[in-house]
Amino acid sequence: MFLFGAMQMATVLSLAKQYEDTIHNYMAAIDKSLHPTRALDEEMVRKAVFLVRHDGVQIHSFNEERLLLEASVKDAHSVKVVLNFGKLAAVCACPQETNCRHRLAVIFSLYQKIDSLSEWVAKWRDKENEKLSTLTNKRSPDQWEALIRSTWREPINDYVTRNYFYFEQLYEGRLKNALSFMPLEREWKTLYKTYAHLISLTEVWETFSAGTKEVHHSFFKTWFADELHALRDMLGQLRGLHRTFESDAFFTHLRELVREFAETNDDSFSERFEIYQLFWTELFISRRERLSGLDEFRRPDERVKAFFALLLGNEVSPGNITPGAAADWVKLAVLAEEEGHQQGLSAILMAIKPHVRTFLFDGLFTQYRHHYVRVLSRLYSLIDLTEEDWEDLFTQFGHYGLPAYSAYLVEKGMYKQWAELHQLHNSPLYFAEECGLKEVHNAAPDFALPLYHRYALQHLDERSRTSYKQAVRVWKKMKAACKKSGQMPFWNAYMNEIQHRYKRLRALQEEIEKGKLL
Which superkingdom heads the taxonomic lineage of this protein's source (predicted)? Predict the structure, then answer.
């Protein structure tokens, strides 16, 4: 039995030369069982090489009778490894059952005594390049998919989920690698780019979905919107290209990829469905394609059924929708408007109506609520609603629906309710003007007076000459309203009271005189 001490390097070298054939057999077994295209295999080899090059392997003893070599590997913790030269086996104290970086590190440490480890690793990795080279020489949908997915073989670290900037860097880097295999022929470039973007999106999807729940969620959502925009541009270009017989298989495969992606059952259906809709509204637009689209789903969701009904001009029956699906149905209502499908628009909007408040306040971030209230107000104005329906909608909109509700009240001539609404919500002057104050001033000036009074007093509270000038501007509008409604005696009494109450504010008195309010 050999024990290795001070003369370890020389003794290990002689041992490696003595059992050179055995070490080569170990390396051949590694080469056969591991492949660089498998992410875990490539990572294992890379980490084992790192341990060897940083002196992480120590050979302790070798039993000539039993042909057992004992070593330790300095990883996060020191790990014991035993090689059985007789059985060409390796045992490690770590939990991994078969190959592990510790076993590989010990074998690599012995191998580099008799040959070049760097050359072996380079040759081993060349197996991947040979495969990729073969793929690039065979143009088919399956080969394209394999090429693109090969650039995503490395696992994605958890920290990428928590930091959008790492996520963006990783995605752009791997997408760039995928695009490096783009065909040279111009007519194939856009189709390949579409494949690269779609497949890369599916590969990174789990990380993206997790990122939308982290602190950088808004960045992840913006990234998704940008990806949709990029895909829309590519699909538009593809739609304008002449399809050849050779490309038919690629378009068929693309349909399968999109359908499989949309049909995956998880909590990100809305985003998946949005991508699916994009392909079928921008690229797969022939009636023949759309007639068979729904049949490709094993168990189509009601939203998918409604989507194809809208595209084909068939009757839409949403039934009772769930509150969590309201966002998808709103987008389908927009599609119904674009397709001129009035029955579908009305059916979808009436099905959504009970869930509007839940959709706005539980399903959306604050910054998106104003936008969707405007969208919903416009859509509902395109169908027949009763006054009770409108009242219910505006109640569900909350304060985000003030502009739409105000426009409705002005249209109906309900000026008193308009004024009470803005008093209740303490609307600032600029907002009241945007919501129709001028129309109320002209049609029913009496109801505008309390608002003008409140706005003027708010300026007085600021106690500056600039704010007094603002108050005078408001009072001029109030005076015009009094004159229009025949209430000048009230106006004179009102201004006398203001002058008396604020008689110590000399700057205010001067501005009132300049404004000729009396």
Answer: Bacteria
Provide the pLDDT for residue 180.
87
- The pTM assigned to this predicted structure is 0.65
DSSP element (H, E) containing 293: helix 287-293
- pLDDT tens for each residue of 131-180: 555 545 568 999 999 999 988 988 888 888 888 999 999 999 999 989 98
Torsion angles phi and psi, residue 173, rounded to 5? -65, -45
Question: For 325, phi and psi rounded to 5 degrees?
Answer: -95, 0
Q: Which amino acid is at 433?
A: E
Helix (H, G, I), strand (E, B) or coil at 84: strand
- What is the reported pLDDT for 7? 39
Give the 3-state secondary structure of residue 24.
helix
Q: Where does 185-216 have alpha helices with state H? A: 186-203, 205-211
- CA pair distance 406, 436, nearest whole angstrom: 7
Which residue, among 171, 141, 332, 135, has the nearest Cα to 255 in the 3D structure?
A: 141
Distances (CA, A) of 145 to 148, 150, 250, 265, 465: 5, 8, 10, 22, 71
| Residues 394/401, Cβ–Cβ less than 8 Å | yes
The pLDDT of residue 6 is: 39
pLDDT for 255: 95
243-257, 260-274, 359-373: the lowest-pLDDT one: 359-373
- Tell me the two tokens of residue 107: 């074998």
Three-class DSSP labels, 330-393:
HHHHHHHHHHCCHHHHHHHHHHHHHHHHHHHHHCCCHHHHHHHHHHHHHHHCCCCCCHHHHHHH
Please identify which residue in the block is written with the tokens 């909608």.
393
Q: What is the pLDDT of residues 434-465, one digit of tens each?
A: 999 999 999 999 999 999 999 999 999 999 99
Per 3-state DSSP, what percentage of the chain is helix, strand, and coil (rounded to 5)?
Answer: 70, 5, 25
Nearest to 333 by CA among 346, 321, 317: 346
Q: Using CA atoms, how far apart are residues 16 and 114, in angstroms rounded to an integer?
A: 7
- Residues 281 and 278: their CA atoms lie apart, in Å, by 5
- Count of residues for the chain? 518
2 pLDDT exceeds 70? no
State whether residue 70 is helix, strand or coil: strand
Residue type present at position 187: E
Tokens 């869930």 -> residue: 355
Residue 267 CA from chain centroid, whole number: 13
